[in-house]
Amino acid sequence: CRAVLTLRVSLAERSYPILIGESLLSDAALLGQHLPARDLLLVSNTTVAPLYAERVRAALGDRRIVDVRLPDGEQYKTMEYMQRVLDVLVANRFGRDCVVLALGGGVIGDLAGFSAACYQRGVAFAQMPTTLLAQVDSSVGGKTGVNPPGGKNMIGAFHQPSVVFADTSTLHTLPLRELRAGLAEVVKYGLIFDIAFLDWIENNVDALLKLDAAALAHAIHRSCELKADVVRRDERESGDRALLNLGHTFGH
Q1: Mean pLDDT of 107-116
Q2: Single pTM value for the model
């Protein structure tokens, strides 16, 4: 039996599970349990979709699944490309009981989530993050949005996902630079919140870089656990959640 680590983001009626493990995107029973909708919009990009879209479609079985494939890159996280997603939802007459699936990294998660927040004043969406950075950070907490010409993430909404599937198998196709970016975020959680976790990271960095499944699952689980606790206390970033922006100044 495949080991799946599970934790819950506790936000009253907006609470949702985070599922962590290998090959989750191929698990028909797991996807069926958490995605009961008949109509699904699968939003991905031209890099990720050829790798994983077909296995998601196969696992979802006999549903109506419509694909949207966007170009890959932060420069496409704009209102123009969000409009493409909304146009497909409208053209295919998706109802309020549909689910938008965000298959990709942070850009896809943010744009698909914001599209879901806006369509018919809010429909459900599920995160299927395929980068380590998205699995430990952007897929958790409900911050969605796009970048206008005047700044980053200046247009968006808080819209929590209904479920997060963190499939560690997807990290095997991740470039080393992207893997290191995700590990830097994991280190940040240890640095801010949990020195014992920071020690564990230091002792297991080789296993993490070698994509050891158990080490990755533990790192993702503890990172998400720490972030979920902050989100529970400060969902809309009016206080403690601003701590998670540590490093963003240097990044820009």
Answers
A1: 98
A2: 0.94
